[in-house]
Amino acid sequence: MNSPEEVVDFIYNGHQRFLPHLSIDCVIFGYHDQQLKILLIRYHDQEHWSLPGGYVERQEGLTAAAHRILSEKTQLTNLYLQQFYTFGDSPTRLNRIEIQDNHNKVYAKANVAIDEEHWLSKRTLSVGYYALVDYHEVSVTPEFLVVDYAWVDVNAVPSLQYDHNEIIDKALLTLRSQLYQQSVGYNLLPEKFTLSEIQALYEAILGKPFDRRNFRKKMVALGVIRQLDERRKIGPHRSPYLYDFNLENASKLQEAGGVIF
Amino acid sequence: MNSPEEVVDFIYNGHQRFLPHLSIDCVIFGYHDQQLKILLIRYHDQEHWSLPGGYVERQEGLTAAAHRILSEKTQLTNLYLQQFYTFGDSPTRLNRIEIQDNHNKVYAKANVAIDEEHWLSKRTLSVGYYALVDYHEVSVTPEFLVVDYAWVDVNAVPSLQYDHNEIIDKALLTLRSQLYQQSVGYNLLPEKFTLSEIQALYEAILGKPFDRRNFRKKMVALGVIRQLDERRKIGPHRSPYLYDFNLENASKLQEAGGVIF
DNA sequence: ACAAAAGTGTTGGAAGTACACCCATGA
DNA sequence: TCATGGGTGTACTTCCAACACTTTTGT
């Protein structure tokens, strides 16, 4: 929504296109400079930052909606995207006055106001998805109502709107727990990468350092990555081997994963 | 809903009380006779069985709704209940004609019909919860539109309505993967139980046998259960020790659980 | 005394962890 | 030649899996 006209159309006609009472919130993890960051946005006249999100079209699959929303926000397609929980308990989600009030502050920028009975004033549940994207390839779409965006370090997330902090916590927990069952990182690293690169990624995600030798043993033994017969030149140092993801194994890991016995 | 009048009221006025487009489906695992079973229901004039489910009230938390629905169906409160996934992709969920048609077959019993624009004809997403209940304590509430119910073995689930088979598969996967991080079974076993009892439960859930000695070592080492200084008399056999759940540890396990490192 | 269930300990293998030295490269 | 990052192996510990005999108890 890039213009006031589009916003007005959304507010008045959106209920025909979208399901009410339900939104998707995306925790978009980006990796850059050996840090794990999250993409936050701030709407017009809002004190708190929010997660990027959107609504589900009436005849659209849920997963498809999540992909669409993510690509609308980041211009990226075909990303690693994973549903992790549906949020519908927080008292802030049930407080109609606060919801309506916040919306109206935002929509004031387009000179529109909504009343208590408007579809956007209603309580919503939110399905949480997390995504892993390459920070560099993201170009955040400028939207009329979004006045600011920022990548913040996962360890320094400010106080967010509604229950979005809780959503991020759960996303991180889920991401961490799935790290060794999925080829997480497939979207964050070039096709071929060095051991150090993927180790730095895992360290950023899990927030702790690993031993080089043990890390390699584990990743290769699990079948997540494969060593290639190729090296990369990297300045005044020994040339490291390249690796790639073993995607055949990935699906097997995923099926077995989660089930401990 | 025990009478045609209540059904009619629900159909005509339910949209005021409940959120549209959203339901909760419960995979109710019951344990009996060393078998893990699932509670299924069959609505009037429906060929396929379904999972018990319900709708979320407009000002009700999602978790609260799940508990309410479960206790409406089983008369049990305070159960182990866990959200596991939200389903919104299956083509059967988007096929309005099929949905409306199925509803109308069911509602014919109350001499009501709904049209294409009715709130119950619309596409719904479904939040999946699973519960663990003691088969014996459940008294399934007779409902006017539900003509039959059955406990079926998890290994012999018939073909169900919509995507309910998929929901059960995911529920089982989740239950199995969480088995050692949560005090699953707290609601299925008496406060004090023998090792054999809990082992039989775990075997039923995971579908494979364990070695007595190794099982005991593992459960005690993980801190899930504690051996008591007490035995039970069980007929012409040696008296087994009693155990109980170590609920203090349970919360710690739960926090650490899922996160592998 | 016997049938049925429960209690108990050891061993070998696999996986995980800790740890340090040498090598390659470009400036 | 030096500074920097990369490559590599071993010993120790812990966890898991396999495995069988003895004890208790009521009839």
UniProtKB/TrEMBL annotation, chains A, B:
Pfam families membership: NUDIX, WHD_NrtR
Domain Nudix hydrolase positions: 19-176
SUPFAM superfamilies named among the record's database cross-references: Nudix, Winged helix' DNA-binding domain
InterPro entries reported for this sequence: NUDIX_hydrolase-like_dom_sf, NUDIX_hydrolase_dom, WH-like_DNA-bd_sf, WH_DNA-bd_sf, WHD_NrtR
Residues making up the signal peptide according to the UniProt record: none
Entry superkingdom: Bacteria
PANTHER family: ADP-RIBOSE PYROPHOSPHATASE (PTHR43736), SLR1690 PROTEIN (PTHR43736:SF4)
Protein name, per record: ADP-ribose pyrophosphatase YjhB, NUDIX family
Organism: Hymenobacter arizonensis (Siccationidurans arizonensis)
